[in-house]
Amino acid sequence: MTDEEILNEFFASSDDQTPAISVREPPPMEVHPVKKSSTIKPRTTSLKKEPIHGTHRQPSTVIPRAVPKLRIDHHNIQIGLGTVSNLTPINATVENDDFALPMASLEHCLNLMKTSKEALAIAAIVESSKMNENAEREFIRILGVIRETHLQPAFSRVISKLQRITPVNNWSAKATTANNLIHFFELVQATDTIHQAVEVFFEDCVRPWIDSGNSLSDSLIQKKAFIRDVDNTVAFGMDKAIQNLVDQIARILDTTQTTADYNPQLVLDTSGGDDSSHDTEPLTHIVFDFKPTRACLDVIECLDKHIDLLRGVTSKDTFGVFFGEVGVRLFSLLCTNIKKHQISQTGAMRLICDINRYNDWVVQLRLMPLQRLFAILKEVGPLFLADGGDELRNLVYDKERYQGYLTVEEVNEMVASRTDYKSIKKVVEGKDGCVIM
Questions:
Q1: Which of 340, 358, 343 is closest to 260 using CA atoms?
Q2: Residue 106: how many CB atoms within 10 A of its CB?
Q3: Selected residue with higher pLDDT from 86 and 305
Q4: Which uninterrupted H or E stretch holds 286?
């Protein structure tokens, strides 16, 4: 049963706050006819006589038992709390510690809220004067149990697994499983459903009995603290998951990107020539392929692999947040990678091929902020194609061209990767005929 079906089944009767209470009627009395010949014998059981005051003895009367006051069945609540606090998925011994991870039980959380909901509905009938106190107390108790026995243990263990992940040198899409990453996002999905259930419980069972305008209400304070703690935990785990992916991309670039990718070397043209003249014959042509580099293709393959892994286990919003941040960090990583390599005017064509391939990957995500960011990255390619004169200087100091995503200092650092930078340094750094020392 999916999370949505569980929620629909659990809150199908959320409008009915009063559960049906069955009253057991006493069995009918059996009447036995008395025979005429029979005589009623006097009662022989001796009773302790009480002193009688007054001259006449008062007739005996039957005093009915006092009906006990009906109140919230806290024993039932404690049973529910005990069931949740001793969940097998959280405290179970994991056989394979690398893959099997504890997950929060949505079903047990809903059962706990159902138990409290029924108890509060009964209390609303017989203890309406104390419903403010009862509703807040039970709601705070539910939040504590869910947070301390479900979410915190589950997230702590999953995040600890993410923190142990290290990038590999020889990355392969076939060898990538990312089980820990999948478990994390499955836990995020379950947490989001639990959060929705808590909101529905609060609206149905707590808000009608409290002053919503009182920001100092205990239930409102604890509810905000619960949401804040969950958001902070999810954000911390998300940041670690994103950084793991970015670290792997950085390792791919470090181990796969070669110096000849953006600075292809000149080779001798031996066609129709004499081998003895190679020492004096000038270099004539460059072996070049107008395709993205292997490092770029490996990075794109790594990103696509993670998209395939997470597409079915995350919501659209979570997917957008995750890869939106991955794209921002990828932009910074690519800028750093450009600064690390020597780039010639000929190699700039290969650099432009790589940038266009990265931009194509961003376009398929359909995230407009990322598309604007990588459109700025496409403006970096012409910096290495332009001649080292006024044309290049105008490109460097054109602030509108980079729309604030890249500063003049950052653009200058990229231009410093040109193989002919020493000869054009004064022209690039000088603006309006002045040289910046």
A1: 343
A2: 21
A3: 305
A4: strand 285-286
Highest mean pLDDT among 60-74, 143-157, 211-225, 318-332: 318-332
Tokens of 90: 């959280």
346 close to 262: Cβ distance less than 8 angstroms: no
Asked if residues 108 and 10 have their Cβ atoms less than 8 Å apart, the reply is: no
CB-based contact 89:105 (threshold 8 Å): yes
Amino acid occupying residue 271: S
Check if the beta carbon of residue 353 is closer than 8 Å to that of residue 262.
no
Rg, C-alpha atoms of the chain: 38
Determine the Cα–Cα distance for residues 136 and 217; give it in Å rounded to an integer. Answer: 9
Q: Report residue 174's pLDDT band, with 50, 70 and 90 as the boundaries.
A: low
Q: Which residues pair with 418 in a beta bridge?
A: 343
pLDDT category of residue 173 using cuts at 50, 70 and 90: low
Q: What is the largest CA-CA distance in the chain?
A: 151
Tokens of 20: 């049906």
Q: Whole-angstrom distance between the N-terminal and C-terminal Cα of the chain?
A: 70
**At 289, is the secondary structure helix, strand, or coil?**
coil
267: helix, strand or coil: strand
**pTM, whole model, 2 decimals?**
0.72
Identify the bridge partners of residue 285 per DSSP, sorted by sequence position: 267
